[in-house]
Amino acid sequence: MGDAGYGIDPNVVKRIAVEVEEVHSLGVEIALVVGGGNIFRGLAASAGGMDRASADYMGMLATVMNAVALQDALEKLGVFTRVISAIEMREVAEPFIRRRAIRHLEKHRLVIFAAGIGQPFFTTDTAAAMRALEIKAEVLMKATSVGGIYTADPRKDNNAVKIPELNYMRVLQEELAVMDASAISLCKDNRLPILVFNLNEYGNIKRAVLGERIGSIIRPDDEKSVK
Q: How far apart are CA 130 and CA 133, in angstroms?
């Protein structure tokens, strides 16, 4: 949404697309999961009195709008892209079929998952964890507006300390605001590493993929590195 605070900023979409294309051109298989908070926040609407299920469905539709915008920017850069929606809308996106999604990745197409998992009461974080596990991803990269995981919100607390490496249990026990508990638990149960990094710093996606230590990493205690 850029500096406007809402909606879709074409310049931001283009910048993200350029960064993703740089990594994709290296031969990396990439699947993206997009949220819709720049257009509509289901939880906020629910807190305001709207039925939670209705609010969540509206949020899912917002993610499809973001996915189509990102697809357009990527294809202008020559990246073959498929938007896969958990809510069927065949005119703008393919329905989610796990094996088809994996096949797209094998053919070096970039996949964008939209509409969460198609059910209310689940966050984009949980959808990202589920899709990552379904396609057997090596790592789940959580793009945020801060440089990693901190003991408190660094935008509000000057004494917040960055935690470069931690395990799933610490995130859950200390209720660190990284991803929701369901997403963390899914990753914990399946030993899927989570990298939390700042998307607003240009080049961070490529740095992470090439193995440079950025942001914060969540993984099992017995894992020393992420391949």
A: 5
Q: Give me the DSSP letters along 79-148.
A: --EEEEESS--TTTSEEP-HHHHHHHHHTT-EEEEESTTSSTT--HHHHHHHHHHHTT-S-EEEEESSSS
pLDDT along the chain (227 residues), means of 10: 88 96 97 94 84 94 97 98 97 97 98 97 96 97 93 89 95 91 96 96 94 94 58
- Return the H-helix or E-strand segment holding 54: helix 52-76
- Domain count of the fold of the chain: 2
State both tokens at 169. 């249990």
60 shares its domain with 146: no
Letter for the amino acid at 5? G
The pLDDT value recorded for residue 41 is 82
Strand-pairing partners, residue 195, are: 141, 217
Asked if 14 and 71 touch (Cβ cutoff 8 Å), the reply is no
Q: Identity (one letter) of the amino acid at 38?
A: N
Range of the domain at 4: 1-137
Looking at the structure, tell me whether residues 99 and 158 fall in a common domain.
no
CA count, 13 A, side-chain hemisphere, 115: 18
The position carrying tokens 């391949």 is 227
Whether residue 139 contacts residue 193, with contact meaning beta carbons closer than 8 Å, is answered with: yes
Q: What is the pLDDT of residue 227?
A: 41
